[in-house]
Amino acid sequence: MEQTARVRLDKWLWAARFFKTRTLAAAAVAGGKVHVNGARVKPAHEVRIGDRLEITRDAERYQIVVRGLSAKRGAAGAAQQLYEETVASQETRARHAELRKLAALASPAPAKRPDKKSRRLIHRFKQGL
């Protein structure tokens, strides 16, 4: 983990492994999916230790505090040392994960794929014949 005085937000998000590429990180910041200390910022905004970040990625929302700075992407263990997720954020994400699991149980997948005859019946039903 390389310690530097200042790091661009998009580089830090990439190094902390919140996004797979810097381009995705920059697009998320520009699209308003990342807030620093409650304010919408640009990808070139400099991150400092102690900043509070709110990151929305797909259906998950993270609230973290920056604990370290790095402009290089390293191992996952080193990336986790760069931030600390708040307890409220962890509880909220766990609750949403449980709701997603329950929703998946409410509509189970079929036991097998439909065969040719079944597909024809499905198409006829959908087309209203």
According to CATH, the homologous superfamily is RNA-binding S4 domain
- What would CATH call the class? Alpha Beta
Alpha carbon gap, first and last residue: 64 Å
Numbering strands along the chain, what is their spatial order in the largest sheet?
Answer: 3-2-5-6-7
**CATH topology call:** Structural Genomics Hypothetical 15.5 Kd Protein In mrcA-pckA Intergenic Region, Chain A
Share in β-strands: 15-25%
Number of strands: 7
Number of helices: 5
- Overall shape: it is elongated
Structural class: alpha+beta
Contiguous low-pLDDT stretches (5 residues minimum) are none
Q: N-to-C SSE series? A: EHHEEEEEHEHH
* Helix percentage: 40-55%
Q: Specify the CATH architecture.
A: Roll
What is the element layout, followed by pairings?
Elements (H helix, E strand, L loop, with lengths): L6 E2 H7 L6 H9 L3 E3 L2 E2 L5 E2 L4 E6 L2 E7 L9 H5 L2 E3 L1 H20 L9 H12 L2
Antiparallel strand pairs: 1-4, 2-3, 2-5, 5-6, 6-7
Question: How does this model look, in words?
Answer:
This protein has a single domain, classed as Structural Genomics Hypothetical 15.5 Kd Protein In mrcA-pckA Intergenic Region, Chain A. It has 129 residues and is an alpha+beta fold. A hairpin with a 2-residue loop joins strand 2 and strand 3 (39-40). The strands form two sheets. The chain has a five-stranded antiparallel β-sheet. Strands 1-4 form a two-stranded antiparallel sheet. The chain has helices spanning 9-15, 22-30, 76-80, 87-106, 116-127; strands spanning 7-8, 34-36, 39-40, 46-47, 52-57, 60-66, 83-85. It is elongated, with a radius of gyration of 21 Å.
